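Here's my example:
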Amino acid sequence: MSKKVLISGASIAGQTLAYLLTKHGFQVTVVERSPGLRVGGQGVDVRDQALDVVERMGILPQIRAAVADVREMQFVDATGRREASVELANDLEIMRGDLVKILYDVTKDDVDYVFGDSIKSLAQDSEGVTVAFQSGGTGRFDLVIGADGLHSNVRRLAFGPESEFLDYKGYYFAFGNADAALGVNRTITMFNTPGKMAGIYRSGNHAQAKAYFMFRRPEPMDYDHRDLEEQRRLLKENFAGETSWQVPELLDGALADPDLYFDALTQVRMPSWSAGRVALVGDAAYCASPASGAGAELALTGAYRLAAELAGGDHQEAFRRYEEQQRELVDIKLRISDNLGLMVPETQDDIDARNAALTADR
């Protein structure tokens, strides 16, 4: 049985997998490019099969204590008048950063975390994987698992350029801090102009409000996804002309946030999630995009299935069975067209039709 595992990415998927593998007797190292835990991000849902995973891990009480408590999504006009609303399901929604911290707390004593470093190269043979790190060190592992997100470094090294696997969905998404005085408590408030959305996320259990932005763009932009200043410029350019409602205030808050998230609304579609002794889990393998609302669910369930199969022995059979079991759920969660139509209608007629349909349903 392979016992020494390197996981790239202290993500939800990476830390969940690390926790579960240590329970099965594996020696686990997690290498994370950032100098510390990345605790930014939006609210994530722990639902359905993922709920079973966190309960079996024993962290359900911590998650319940940190729920975001958001009850409603409302759509407003330029003056802030409510035009339509949707009651939100009573899932366990938690801020991504809170979940990351919970996972770190239950793994830090048993997992070797290496922050501020990343994998430079991988060399596989029949007995294991030799890994060279950006810091200059090397290591030898039985298996390497990429849990390093949409722009996975492990996927690039072991499977090929990301352009072969990314499916751009025609939108860009941004998320950052907002003035805590904005918005309505326990509510997501959204304002639309054709092809654009600006919104406020107000958790019932967090003082910090969050700003959402989405905008339609038929073709992807060419920019460095690690260049935060360039991302700020692109976000500002695409919303500079939007002066209605509270868009300017939201934009100011998000642009000032050092943890601003900005990226193309993109999905990862791969024919296989393993290559030899290297495998992928979470967004690195099957990112469904923020529009799916399923990132945490896929990360938790994927990590659980992968760990359970690896505990059985042969890694090749384990990778095959993990993919066989996880693929059906992934294929369901990749269907996001209805969510995009709800959040970012393309025309004013589409906005009006959405609001009328939601009003008629109440």
